[in-house]
Amino acid sequence: MTILIVAPVPSARKSFIALGMRRSVTLARLNAVQLGGMAQAAVHEQERSGAAWTLEWPILPQVMVATGASLRRASDLMASPPSAWHGLG
Fold this sequence. Notes:
3 helices, mainly alpha
């Protein structure tokens, strides 16, 4: 019986970092799309209309969730060793 021990491959770490970066870009684009709805919610008739509130409230939680996920991914990427970033250019 032979036991094969495999060490972590540096390229696997780099692909993990690249995947994290792509996901962060996707989350940023998702938030950019939601900003259009928030801009429409800013348009109101007098003082603060009910139509603006009803448009704003479904969008805001999605923006907060995407922002939180992006910050979590950025934190994970920043915690990776600098040697893992070499060659990602």
